[in-house]
Amino acid sequence: MIIFENLNSKAVLKLHNLYFKPFISSREIDEAIQKMVEEISADMGDEVPVFVGILNGSFMFVSDFVKKYPKPCEVTFIKLASYEGLKSSEDIHRLIGLTQDLTDRKVIILEDIIDSGKTLAEVYRIFKNEKVKELKIATLFYKPEAYKKDFKLHYVGIKIPNKFIVGYGLDYNGLGRDIPEVYQLKTTQHMKNLVLFGPPGAGKGTQAEFLKEKYNLVHISTGDVFRYNIKNETALGMLAKSFMDKGELVPDKVTIDMLNAEVEKNSDAEGFIFDGFPRTEAQAQALDELMDSKDSEISAMIALEVDDEVLVKRLIERGKTSGRPDDSDEIIIRNRIKEYYDKTAILKNYYSGKDKYFGVNGVGEIQEITDRLCKVIDRL
Ligand code: IMP
Ligand code: MG
């Protein structure tokens, strides 16, 4: 028996309104079936078994199975229906029952997948009055966490977690049966996750507000997240503070854990705007891993591009009213801008390398700039 571990592939399958990710390859399915064939044919000895496939889902499995079966055998089908959409329903409909006499025969049920076991219970009801010599159950896929019955499963191909799958005979509302590999429902559906960048004075905060509204995104400003955790004395906040009090940088792991908590708090979001993070390539990689663990990814790094002289003018103007001391000194301002470019060059390369960097002209009316940003985001 193969216990399946996740592939780390990126291709995504869309059926109706849902997204699925690659889960089990054709080769792995083939190997699992080969093993089942060997086990079953050894157990059958010289007897000619009757394989009973449960339609619709099992047609591909039965076909591949009997092609590999090395000795004479018979094949028949019964047709049951239980699943509606993503859920196993209470009543199982018997659409086509047994059509041949199985008295004194060795019968092996070939199921594509066993989930709650309700279908299997119906199979047992069908066979209750048949005087078969032996009834055994073989299933290609099995979800142990979902199984609620006590019937013994004699042959199991691949154990899988309790998540909805499609492909290789299995469907989601009619689609997906024809796909030769198995795909698994993505935990998060399609999201727009943006990393927003811009030098001081570029208008990042203003634009983030608009984007958040328009695309129903959650704005995660690392600065705000830190202040929130420290103010509320969360475990992570206290941990972060202990480093800050020593004058040390907060380790990336702590920051990522805080961001993870924010992402989890908003698990129904249509996406996130990350602001103030990442700052280094290591952080960018950590953020990719975090999104990957949520079956998602960073869609784009969007950087507002504003000429230095315009920024200096804007910040000096702002300093006149804001009273922020670092907004009034031209040398400090120029240093902050330079520091921004020194630090973000690496990230620009990182995201460019993945075709995910988008520079947007940040000079003009606020609405004009928003329109430019939307043009980029709509195409993601
Ligand atoms: P059970 O009756 O709950 O054991 O479910 C068995 C039947 O439900 C299978 O024969 C499939 O038709 C369907 N099913 C169970 N899990 C899945 C799945 O993950 N994807 C597609 N169909 C499924
Ligand atoms: Mg089935």
Please characterize this protein's 3D structure:
This protein is of the alpha/beta class. It folds into 2 domains: 2-185, Rossmann fold (3-Layer(aba) Sandwich), CATH 3.40.50.2020; 192-378, Rossmann fold (3-Layer(aba) Sandwich), CATH 3.40.50. It has 11 helices and 16 strands. It has helices at 26-44, 59-68, 118-127, 204-215, 222-231, 235-245, 252-265, 281-293, 308-322, 330-352, 366-378, and strands at residues 2-3, 13-15, 18-24, 50-55, 74-84, 87-96, 106-114, 134-142, 155-159, 165-166, 182-185, 194-197, 218-221, 272-275, 300-305, 357-361. Strands 1-9-8-7-4-5-6 form a 7-stranded mixed sheet, with helices on both faces. It has a 5-stranded parallel sheet with strand order 13-14-12-15-16, with helices on both faces. The chain has a 4-stranded antiparallel sheet with strand order 2-3-11-10. Helix 1 packs across helix 2 (59-68), helix 6 (235-245) packs antiparallel against helix 7 (252-265) and helix 9 packs across helix 10 (330-352). The longest helix is centred in the C-terminal third of the chain and has 23 residues, at 330-352. The structure holds inosinic acid and magnesium ion (MG). Inosinic acid binds next to strand 5, strand 7, helix 3 and strand 10.
Features:
380 residues; binds magnesium ion; 2 domains; seven-stranded mixed sheet; disordered N terminus; Rossmann fold; alpha/beta; 16 strands; 24% strand; 11 helices; binds inosinic acid; five-stranded parallel sheet; elongated
